Amino acid sequence: MITHCPHCSSTALDWPSTKQFTCRECGFVLFLNIAAAVGVIIECQGKLLFGVRKHEPQRGKLDLPGGFVDQGETAEQALQRELQEEIGLTIPAARYLYSFPNRYPYLGITYDTLDLIFLVQLVGFPPLQAGDDLAELLWLDRDSIDLEQIGFTSLRQAVQRYLTESGGLSSGKPLTSAGCRPF
Hints:
By secondary structure, the protein is mainly β. 14% of the residues lie in helices and 37% in strands.
């Protein structure tokens, strides 16, 4: 919780809503907006790629590759960067699927995020290496995914919706081109 005005250091703050405060001394107004994050469902031959989280929050739980959008980045650029950092994969294209709100607790502060979920479908299994925030990578059969093992509610919702909308156990879409299938 913010207790001092970042402009004048006064403690005379009013919180007219949970997303904004105003300083009674200098009139400074700060809006606490959400942080944008990206995640990607990567599917190959009926399996989805998950990472196992290396750090808190949700250490040891399943995660989709992705992360926070940096200043000046588009969601697509953030997705490309995060895929390189976390799994060593470069993709030519990804298809936007959904967005879900999320809460990300970190070092005693909970950040509200909006998680933008993308889809990449691969023909073959590329060489991948867990990096950055992931301890390991797992290809899981669509019908063996335990949604409760997915660490974040937003990603659990995204995977559940994707599996439901794409036909449960099989998407039924032929994968014929090499590498990623652009949409």
